[in-house]
Specification:
This protein has 385 residues and is of the alpha/beta class. The protein is built from eleven helices and 15 strands. The strands form three sheets. Strands 8-7-6-5-4-3-10-9 form an eight-stranded parallel sheet. The chain has a five-stranded mixed sheet with strand order 11-12-13-14-15, with helices on one face. Bound molecules: iron/sulfur cluster (SF4).
């Protein structure tokens, strides 16, 4: 039985994941649920996921978008299943992609069963919304027969009226009780392959709701801020909510919901995970903010290094600094650094000077060379967590 008051239990990060940075609490121990071949919860790395904005019935366009999302690092993808044609399309989409596919269903229990039969790896449906006990039992049995987990996803718009009355409206307490009500329906059928999400568009409320639910059950938690907004503001809101929760050890999979290109969602997800030292994917560029001591055109140098890094996939950390005042030791966390000053450019490796150059182009060429060599030889590679 997974519904219980859960103490904070320490568990170690998975061996392949980099050690979380100082200040990140040990993770809340959740049960591990498999979504296709991707583990979610337990000691698994925090999984990155997203949702298509294509019409699922348009198989070619949907597959093309999913392949783009895969390339950007998406590990689990969700598609809307509003009708039977969309459910049938899963059978054509699934063989053409390489990551688990989640069928997102509202209300119609028959679409859940159809999606399971057509190859979905997970169902997103709230049992409280699909009608009588017989329908719920059929969906649960179907999920069991196909070995599929179910995500119970409650949000501000799905809270039941009696809970809105009980808690005086839409708030973290009513969200949590709504989620637990749906979980209990599944638990009555002895079904526990559950992932939970409680989405609010307010980061503070989302933080509060996830903290509460983490104390009430040990199901893996899917973190998200709904209707977060366009790329910049949406990423910031998501980073505040998810960053806070992940730093407290709460959260097993994340989705950043943005009004913008899908690749931006993955970039934001990995940015959050990377900032906390929970995952590393691709190169990381750090640069100084510049100040009155600046002696070079830092902005254009950063832009040029960014272009070089587009050809690098290993998780190498590169620092670009605008002067040599504080010394290369300032970038000792970086694998490589370039420090520009009046008439001198320093190339550094883990904070140690490797070479001095008198002009910028030579220094930049040297940095490009070592990055591309490292990429080729994979001598800088760290396993992607
Ligand atoms: Fe200023 Fe130099 Fe620090 Fe950049 S590295 S912020 S230019 S002191």
């Amino acid at each position: 039985m997974a519904i219980k008051s859960l103490p904070i239990i320490a568990n170690e990060p998975p061996p392949e994941a980099p050690k979380p940075m100082w200040g990140v609490m040990k993770r809340h121990l959740t049960r591990k649920v498999m979504v296709g071949n991707v583990p979610v919860g337990g000691d698994a790395p925090v999984a990155v996921q997203s949702m298509c904005d294509t019409d699922t019935r348009d198989v070619a366009t949907t597959v093309a978008q999913i392949l783009e999302m895969e390339a950007a690092g998406c590990e689990i993808v969700r598609v809307a299943v509003p009708d039977e044609v969309a459910g049938e399309a899963i059978a054509k989409i699934r063989p053409q992609i390489h990551i688990p596919l989640v069928a997102d269903i509202h209300f119609d229990w028959r679409l859940a069963i159809l999606s399971a039969k057509k190859g979905a790896d997970k169902l997103r449906i709230n049992p409280g919304n699909i009608g009588g006990k017989k329908k719920i039992a059929e969906v649960v049995q179907c999920a069991k027969d196909h070995g599929l987990p179910i995500r119970v996803g409650v949000n501000q718009g799905s809270i039941e009226n009696d809970l809105l009355d009980k808690y005086g409206g839409n708030n973290p307490e009513s969200l949590v009780d709504s989620a637990m009500r749906n979980v209990e329906i599944l638990a009555e059928h002895d079904f526990h392959d559950i992932i939970l999400s409680l989405k609010s568009s307010n980061p503070g409320e989302a933080i509060h709701a996830y903290r509460l639910i983490a104390q009430r059950c040990d199901y893996p938690l899917h973190l998200g801020v709904t209707e977060a907004g366009p790329v910049k503001t949406g990423s910031l809101k998501s980073a505040v909510a998810m960053g806070t929760l992940l730093a407290e050890g709460i959260g097993d999979t994340i989705r950043v919901s943005l009004t913008g290109p899908k690749a931006e969602e993955m970039e934001a997800c990995y940015g959050i995970l990377q900032a906390l030292g929970l995952r590393r994917r691709g190169p990381e560029l750090v640069s100084c903010p510049s100040c009155g001591r600046i002696e070079i055109d830092l902005m254009s140098l950063v832009e040029e290094v960014q272009i070089t890094l587009k050809s690098v996939s290993s998780p190498v950390k590169v620092a670009v600094m605008g002067c040599v005042v504080n010394g290369p030791g300032e970038a000792r966390d970086a694998d490589w650094g370039i420090f520009g000053g009046k008439g001198v450019y320093l190339l550094t490796r883990h904070g140690e000077i490797v070479e001095r150059y008198t002009n910028r182009e030579e220094a930049k060429a040297a940095l490009t060379r070592v990055l591309l060599e490292g990429e080729r030889e994979q001598t800088l590679a760290v396993p992607v967590g």
